Amino acid sequence: MNVHSTDLSAKSSVPVARIVEARGSLPHCTLSFEVEFEVEELEALSDLVSLFARAGLICDGLRYRRDGSILVRLCDSDRSDFQLMDAALDQLPSLKMVRWTTVLSKPAD
What residues pair up with 72 in beta bridges, in sequence order? Predict the structure, then answer.
């Protein structure tokens, strides 16, 4: 398993180019993502889950932390649209993405 983590301090953005590069250069690997958000309003969770569905990502887990942050585990699919997700996150001001981690794992033989 290989992990690449990006701390996002300025503008939140999905590392689309890095994901496309990983897909192309490591086609034998399965991609998943761990994403951390800061949330101002808990109601934003429903918007976030809806966004994942629209972007074709599979939400494999969602953990609300005591400090108010949310840690989400997402699985890549053949319908994943990271550009849509990136653009839609700009429209959700009550959410701030603070970390994106891409996890590469080799499928079981």
Answer: 35, 62
* pTM, rounded to two decimals: 0.80
Q: Print pLDDT tens along the chain (109 aa).
A: 555 555 444 455 899 989 989 888 988 889 999 999 998 887 888 888 999 999 999 999 999 888 889 999 999 988 899 999 999 888 888 888 999 999 998 875 6
**CB of 70 closer than 8 Å to CB of 63:** yes
CA–CA separation, 64 and 69 (whole Å): 6
